[in-house]
Write the structure tokens for this entry.
Amino acid sequence: MRLNSKFILPKLIGHRGVKDLKPENTLESIITAFDLGLECVEIDVKVSKDNIPLLLHDDTLDRTTNGSGLVCNFTFDEINQLDAGYYFYKSNTEIKVPSLTSVLDLVKKKQKYLNIELKPNKKYEGLNVKKILQEIKQVSYDKIYFSSFDLSSCVSLKKSAPHLLCGFLNDDFNKVNINETIDICKKYNFFSCGINLNFFSNSIVNQFVENEIQVTVYADNNICEVQAQNLWSNKVTSIFVDDPREYF
């Protein structure tokens, strides 16, 4: 049994907080997730121009703030002045793009689990991991695991901090097939693999489970409870949800 296989993820993970209910990757979204009963949330983290880890999914500011341009071209203070709620509510808000530090403080205070998805700015993969690890070290909290679609980010994390938990995300088994994915997870000691609901099959999940790799499932739209029950009954460990209200 590999070292990381002993860690079992919560069955439900809030996707970017609860992104169908509140603006994604904001403190409001994360707090709402916990208030609804979730024990774990997933967030997307990358660094600003001045190397401060912050929560934002895209390469640019355009979709989720009233700003425009690449995240890596702006300092955290500049990004923090933007409205991160207007796109969701279609009106002006005081909602800001949070720093990773503020989220870590919140999660630690509430004693919840956190999944940090490494969303590096292009060519800054190593720096992104380095700065995030510095923040994690200062907080000293162990209910955290990492994941990324970017293999170099996952490898960089495990090389810098072998004791930390990391999962590989694969959204297309036509590009990296199941056997190659399992080989990658075993080579770098990734304890889990996240797959798109579109690629779910009993065969794929069984192959991961046989190799002591936990499986998480995400989708483009909210996964309802009926779908989740089917996934759990077929050995999927965790489901990412955008709106978990029907589960409670």
Q: What stands out?
A: Confidence is low (pLDDT under 50) at residues 1-5.
